[in-house]
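Q: I'm teaching a short session on how sequence maps to structure, and I want students to see two examples side by side rather than one. Could you give me a first protein with its sequence written out and its structure tokens following it? Keep the formatting plain so it prints cleanly on a handout.
A: Of course. Example one:
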Amino acid sequence: MALALKIFAGLAVAAALSSSAHAQGLINEKNLSLGMAQAIANGAMDKCEEMGFRISVAVVDRDGLPIVMLRGDGAGLHTPEGADRKAYTARTFRAPSARRRAADQSRRRRGWGGRRVRIARQG
């Protein structure tokens, strides 16, 4: 009887472990290809050039890491970093940066957040 109980317990443990291992399968994720990221960046750059803006464009992946970075002719030195930060923020909040800006402005109108702390420094 003790042997039958040990076999039953072993089978129960094996069944429990196999079901949890099956539940931990691979995760499928959709990612931008390099070609698609280049097409997005080139389209944004072309549209802004038509409108007369000199900009940089960044396209980030699902982890917020840059895939493509373009600096337009005549764009300022600060624009690549700004484009990268803007793309990262949009990815982090999963929303266009214009929506984030509108939310920040409405908070400021209500007197909530957005206050800057200035620290006096020698130099």
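Q: Perfect. Now a second example for contrast.
A: Example two:
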Amino acid sequence: MTPPAVTISTSTVEPITWEPGIETIGTALAGQGVDLSTEAAGVVREIPFAANDRVEKGALLLQIDDRTERADLESAQASLALAKTELERAQALQARGSPRPIPCKPRRQMKPLQKHKLRNCKPSLKPNG
């Protein structure tokens, strides 16, 4: 008995550039890396480097949103300026022999304080988006 015929196919071989690689699904782990932790809680506003970038010692790695804290600082500075003005006024009245200086908050000094208080509220009132 004769064996059945075997099908043979042919193709033309041509040289090509081969890029070695494997397609797969999985998790990649860095050979070198770090875990970051901060001393202060907050929302990260900026990460000033890209993945796999080299960073120098002492470089900024992330920026926490500090708008509220900055507004609080400005408000405190305005309150300090107002307190200094009131103290200078009270000392001037006392030097003139006033028996009892009357506490007074000049409107010109209250305006910067109110502006800073308003700025302090804006970051927390900003809509999400």
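Q: What should students look for in example two?
A: Point them to this: Residues 24 and 30 are 17 Å apart (CA to CA). Also worth mentioning: The first strand starts at residue 44 and ends at 46.
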